[in-house]
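Table S2 (text version). Query chain:
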Amino acid sequence: MSGLLSDQFSTSWEELVNFDRLRKYRLSRVVSALKGEGLDAILVFKADNVRYVSSIRPLIWEAGYQTRNMVIADSRGNVSLFVASGDFQRVKENDPWLKDVKPLASLEDAGISSRVVEEQFIPELRKMGLLGSRIGIDATTLYTIDFLQKSLAKSGSTLEDGDEVMRKARAVKSSDELRLLKASSAIVDAGVEAARGMLAAGKTENETAGRALRTMYALGTEWMPSNPVVFSGPPPFRRFATGRPIEAGDRVVVELTAMNDGYCAGGSRTFIAGDAPVEGAADPELREAYGSVVKKLTPGTRLADLFATFRKWTHDAQAEASLTLRGTGLSLTDYPHATDPESAGTATLSEGMVAVVEARMTRLKKGVVQVSDTVHISGTGPVFLTKFQEG
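Corresponding structure-token output:
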């Protein structure tokens, strides 16, 4: 918990996270990525990308993930924010670093979207001197993209895929981002410990997940980047909790995520349920495979080589083994990202990346064992940010 307590709260007598430096770093990464792709600007709709560029804490719900806020950022570092109208006053009062903020109607209606494009987005692009430019976009509704393409074409502008720009910008974490990730990782550790304390015969998976969630929210998590997983019983594995009562001797997978100031961490462990639950991920084959992969999390390593290493250790024909790498930051979709050798392609690790590394083994008679951690790829090797240990 030391990482949580030292990194979660700012003080006047020491510098922990320097948020002004963090905001400048993130915008500089976007500007560099735009220049690298030859784009003059980008229109950002995804909530996590909006947060990366503008540093607002957007209202988050599934339906509005890419329709309630929008940021224009250009290659000179200028930023214009359109924020959900219901959140406009809060942002104006709380976020003084933003000089150009306007309310935005929901773009979930095609008629409203058409008017917003013509009456707000295009005039703002004109004011910023961006008409006639190459402009990227991350993702929003198909009709909003269509309206933008047609309107921009009238001025000689082109609208291009800009999602890769944002993923490249977000891939390498600064020292301030790492401090925030350490705090979210500590919240995950606390949640796993709380869940372990509930793994007694008769308790349900949902009760166990509820204990973990209460603990993590009490420690400041903003929300859960993914469903809390408490899985017991026979395969196949599922990524959620149910009302199933846990039985003594069950292998129970607990997988949790947390978010601190927008930054996401995740981790999982497998326990043997009982009066004194013990970590049950002692499957020697999985543990050796996982450890071997983590050791190779160094700058320059090819993701495909990580899967090759994993396969060397998981050769039991009676078992199904899987390895996943999910880059993490303001979401669990940063680089690096791979679920198999094919998706790994030719990608390599870079210093400053952070990933949730997950290994799972399913044996028909013994059940499911899983272990995962949030790991920083540093210049001196892998550094565990989640630090949960038995006992």
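Notes on Table S2: The chain has a mean pLDDT of 93. The radius of gyration is 22 Å.
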